[in-house]
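Continuing from the previous page of notes. For each protein in this section, the sequence appears first, followed by its structure tokens. Read the first protein now.
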Amino acid sequence: MEASFARDMWKVVEPLHAVTYFAEECRKANGDVGLKGFWMGYFGSRGAPLGAVSAGTIQATFFGFHPARVRRAVPDAWRFASPESILRARSDAAARVLRRTVPGIEDVAVKAAPLLQEVVMAADASGRPLFAANQDLPLPEDPVEALWQATTSLREHRGDGHVALLAAEGLSGLEANVLVSAIGVVPPERFYESRGWSPEDWAEATEELTRRGLVAQGEATAEGRGLKARIEQRTDELAAVPYNVLSDPKTLYESLIPASKAAATEMPFPNPIGLPRPA
């Protein structure tokens, strides 16, 4: 499978998954189940497949967040809601959003969810904790919930591989954010807001990247851009492997495009994920 196919699939899978972060139904569901505030809802719902883990585990697997932002939410989240109740709430809410936003989502889900799940089960979970936890979850009987869960598993598979590559290059979560911003993908202010870093943290990381020759005067150097391009290419290569199980991957991809565009209306652009607006 070509690496470029994995990037194309990410662009259609991510909006279907990401309603869980941005849609009002999902934020409300986190609150209704007992989680307090947006960030406890975010860390609790995304981390629930791991079980009632420590703040350190969330910090390590989520990678790019200020430790204080994580520790204000975890492990307290597990006192307010069990991981099992959170899992039920997040799946139900995401499906309701997709039914509201995506015309014909039932037909899309019936056809696409089993194929996506084939890819999920074919993927190697070694070294991918968030993916492994999602892969182990039973697939919901509801087809739209099943579609959402399969897209969630695949985005965590890609994300875990990406984090491993960033760490292998000696980049911290903050430094990875700074490099992305220096390339022009996401404005720094978006990372201050979404990841909890202060301007002082940002300046310190920028200084370190400047020392390494990856950034100069706040912009990525040729070396910095090259490093980021190599990481993205290798991320795509690793993410592409499980799609080899499909006999007709192109048809699956094309079937998801309209649904993905509709779901993307729930997302802000630019966003901290770095996902571009659908063409």
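Done with the first. The second protein uses the same format. Note its length before scrolling.
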Amino acid sequence: MRNRRAVPPSPLPQRHGIDPVRLRLPATGPWTTVREHLVDRLSAVAPALVDAMLREGRVWGVDGPVAPDAPYVPGAYLWFHRELVPEVPVPYAVEVLYRDDTLVVADKPHFLATTPRGRHVTETALARLRRDLGLPALSPAHRLDRLTAGVVMFTVRPEHRAAYQNLFRDRLVRKEYEAVAPYDPELELPRTVRNRIVKERGTMAAREVPGEPNSESRIELLEHRGGLGRYRLVPLTGRTHQLRLHMSGLGVPILGDPLYPRLVERAPDDFRRPLQLLARTLEFTDPLTGRVRRFTSRRTLAAWTSHRDRAGEGTA
């Protein structure tokens, strides 16, 4: 097996819990200077901004800041911090359920992305936890949708990340979700839903298509009242938006879902109608210790608890 050259550590620290961008210069190309390559590579950035980054010493190589006229060196690594655009703060806290030298297990609120992506960068669970806990090497073992609340797990040390990620890859983690959706007395439950889900790059919603099933979910009704049901959802696979699409396909879309069965436009600062989907539990055998671990969210779904309050039945 061919040996791969180790990636050198970043010479730049994190900023606001966000790692610097790392680039590796291609082995071949028409560029004679680093600047020429950056102007091509960062086509969305004005050449004047590239010049300013180099002039101010904001682009680094392994030996320090890169000079504005630095020659192009194939295979060299570069680092710089992206320009952070102001984000709408998500007005809910990330609660830590468990922490040791290996794992951090958090109870993520609705509307907060797990990791930086797109327009959500600093307002993410990962960035917040890195800052709040002082753990710059913290990494996600898996992800939850931005609109889904509940249990999400992170690894403290880079050398442990693969062991825990592989649990999710190999379907060795039992995941249990809770949802609030319309109650249909004609819908026979429990049942297992299997179908094929695809999500094209650049599209917001996934969709069901004919073909060999690649998704599987167990759907159970826990209780119902006043036209609403509280459901237990157990995904046996992990396709994008799988539970949301399966519930919508059964004719009982999850309350607050802005994508299924149809797109509903919402402002970035509209936190009034959270998706009523909660990652309730994670259970697995720890790959490092052999112990069975089970983590449970402390959150509740407002559509169910507020309904109970209105019915005079107390709080959950």
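What the second structure shows: The two ends are 57 Å apart (CA to CA). Confidence is low (pLDDT under 50) at residues 309-316. We return to this in next week's lecture.
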